[in-house]
Amino acid sequence: xxxxxxxxxxxxxxxxxxxxxxxxxxxxxxxxxxxxxxxxxxxxxxxxxxxxxxxxxxxxxxxxxxxxxxxxxxxxxxxxxxxxxxxxxxxxxxxxxxxxxxxxxxxxxxxxxxxxxxxxxxxxxxxxxxxxxxxxxxxxxxxxxxxxxxxxx
Length: 153
Known about the structure:
By secondary structure, the chain is mostly helical. It has helices at residues 16-24, 27-57, 62-85, 93-121, 126-149. Helices cover 76% and strands 0% of the residues. The longest helix has 31 residues, at 27-57.
């Protein structure tokens, strides 16, 4: 008897393009996107309120206000996405949280880039720019969280 008889077969992960294509055809994935969007909308409200209070109310620089708003909103969004959007995802919550934060930091980078262009280059109002920047970062955040942070393992 060889040791290979006792090995558990491991299925090779599908390429990213195949996973995205499968998700696009899945009703469950569309339902998750809807839940993610609801959580994200709530998170956007939290983000904008914290941004307005810190930038306009406390007079902080809009970049620092955006980072503080991000920190509050990402905590709120992780909890709600873990409990509701991706509730069936297996895995350790700590690892999911670390991945969620990594995806969210990538989203923050997109957010800050869009915010900079809108406010510093185009002269858009900072609050309007922040709202547009949130919208710009959302698709990347959903895909990253679905396929990595809360992927079924």
